[in-house]
Fold each of these.
Amino acid sequence: MKHKYLYIAALIALSTAHAKLIDLTPGGTVIDYGPPPFIAANGFYDEAEALPYTIYDPNVVYPPGWVSHFGILNGGQYFFTDLFTHSLAPTASVSWNFGNSGHWLLYIDVFGFDQTTGADLANLYQVTGASAFKGQDILTLNGQMDITSISFYGRNPALPIPDQQGTFGLLLLAVGGIAVARRICQPEKIEKQPATTAASES
């Protein structure tokens, strides 16, 4: 019975493993490279804007919030941020929970500009492991420049996304964890001693 509980605990530990966001451009870059082209073209979810913005007509100004115009998902449903709920700041909180929607988060692109100098800065984060489905974190450009927009990118269930070694890595982790758990939970084998007969003892 004890081995059964150890096995279940090992499986739970594997399923709840939380991978941190990977900062692909520490300190930010002056060019906003964004995620890989395939994901940028087919996996854009939505963008959060911290400042009033325009889309097509420069006379129509939208308030800060989710753009919800060009992406395949709308922000505030599966993913969230506090970017537009307070004044401009060098950090912003994000969270997401995609459940069994068929979507999961792959990249978060953070953008900002210095309103005094007009300098742009972008910082790209990659979401890996189990945190692609559910997680939360605090984002920054370089710790000093204010964030003005955050774009979310992920899996588009209508299109296959080329594996970035993430799925394969998760599979290896799961198989390795199950193998270790089975090894721990297997009862020790007791070697049988050959039976001795009364004749051999005399």
Note: Residues 37 and 43 are 10 Å apart (CA to CA).
Amino acid sequence: MKQMFEEIDAAIKGVTDLHECVSREAEVWERWEPRRKLMDFVQQHELNVQLQLNGIATPPECLDSSVQYPLLTPAGENWAHSEIRKVRDERIEFWMRIILPTISLIVSITALVFAVRR
């Protein structure tokens, strides 16, 4: 990405006309579009792996249809983070429902054993 911004700076250097400046910047931006999307995909890889491991199917409206590989839109990224958070919270809740009563039972039995010994 640093190279892209350097290329933009070089393209607009010395240009005094605002329209020409915007045009050259858009041209460089367009030329870098495939690389930016690929970089987004690489950055989203871990998110996609977590979705797959949790068995969450990504709805089509959350995917960018302009590329061949699964790239999430910004709204899709927000959706994915919230879904992964929900799954994590459900797992924590499940284990808390098992562990806390078990610990409570162990403490109660231990207290009862000590009470009987006295």
Note: DSSP finds four helices and no strands in the chain.
Amino acid sequence: MQKRNTLGLMVSFILILVLITSIFTLACSKTTTSSAAPIPTTSVIQASTSVAPASTSATAPAASSSSVKAIKLVAATYQNSGNPSDKLLIQWGKDFEAKTGGRYTVEVVPGGAVASITESYDALVAGLADIVFFSPAMVEKPFPVTSEATNFWAGMTGDTITKAWFNNIYNKGYLNDETSTFKLLTTFIGPVGDITTVNPINTLADLNGVKLANIQGATCIELATKLGAVSVQAGPPDLYTDLQRGVVAGCFATAINIQEFKTNEFVKYILPIRVSHMGHMVGMNLDTYNKMPDDVKKIVDDMAQDEQYALIAPAQWDEMYSTSLKYFLDGGGKEIQWSDADMAKVNEIASGIWKEQNAKLEAQGVPANKVCDELYNALKVQGVEPADIAIGYTPGS
């Protein structure tokens, strides 16, 4: 009995020993297999990653446009936020973003943060912003054809003269030479200029020696000078401070500025000389444009031919003009009328300036007379009465 028990214990011991040996052997086998396949080093991972696109491109779907980072364009204006040029750039930017399927975004920077009114063109050409709103009459570079807009076109709305300008001057290529340094996105004409004064100027003779802050450009500076006034060149933000300091006793500027800059705290009279519509442009830096894919360039080109963008700012300016003029008159401002004899003298002086300027431009190879005739006739076709089209000019004169 004791021998049987001893034999049973020996068998059990042997079985346990075999089991332990089997487990140990199996574990060693797994460890060996594992160490035979080392983890790839970083260089191996990089090498395999660099080849991945070739193997995955055939099977993986194309990346969606949302996975591609959009290219941001900066659009700058010297005008404050909420002004017509700011609203135009915002609308243009939204439409451009949509038309490019989100490949581009446009950030509008208002308030002269990129460049002042006189520096805006230089900022555009230098690429300080991709897109810039500027006023050719206020920059150093000559814009001879656009300067015709600052001539003595009468007191029609900006919307009316812009339609004639866009379709008969811009679309017919008259601006091509003077805009060759940038991509012109749109062009339009602002509201008419007005002369407002601190004291009543009841006759042309009363204007003699009166200092006017003039923001309408060189042509109107010449007109004011030949009418007897003294012009002080200024920008819109200067109007209030110049009046407050007594530097000037009036302004040659659109009546919009009365309400916007509160010049009615000083000026109380508006004279019957309502002339000159300043031309404006929105341009894209040439390097920005040239780097764009062909399909995006076509989008830019198509938008540049769309009249709706040319009319956004003028429509808002026209509304601002009417509101500001009403604000001025309701607040006690007065409109002064001059005699027919005085107005005939104004017409004669304006005519002389117009002829002299056009003769100089023609001598430089600029088709100034043709441009003026085109614009005059287009306005007439639009239904503007000849007497309301211009002071001192008729076709062929």
Note: The beta strands are 71-76, 104-109, 131-134, 183-197, 211-214, 230-233, 250-253, 269-270, 275-284, 334-335.
Amino acid sequence: MRNVLALLVLSSGVAFAGPGFDGVGDRGEMPRLERRVAIEAFQFDEQEEKLLEMVKESNPEAYQRLLRLKERDEQAYVRQLFQIALRGQRMKIKPETSERFIVIQSLEVELLAMAARLAGETEAEQPKTRAAMTEVAGKLLDAKQADRRARVEDLNKKIAKIQEEIKVRDEERDARIEEYIDQLTRRKASGL
């Protein structure tokens, strides 16, 4: 199961992006400075082969899209690999994130299969398939909304923690200033 999950994680960002994707996910594009720092921090040479091999094994079509993207726009290619690696990291840290991700991905796969089937159906068969697609798309939207709510909850917890740290630092302001001055004067006295 772990290998299947890893392969799904690594291939999903590319597999469902479709033709002409630019590496921008549903969360929007990263701010330029943040993106540049993050991409530089990503150990590209060390992980590129490993990521590509895993994507190739799990989803050959996604692998081909990545190769075409690399030829067309190397920066977008690097961003996409970086996003795949980040997604894998997040899922290792929080198992509930991976559960939500699996639900979303399976619904997307189901919708893609239904859309392909719809294209080959007669006009008489299409309304039934379209109704089924509407139901699955509703479940997908609900799953994505639940994921967003969970992310907001996580962010609110982080904000509360930082606010508590600020409060403590405000309360300890004078002591912190004295401690800092003491450190500076000890360094000066010791010749540093």
Note: Residues 126-171 form the longest helix (46 residues).
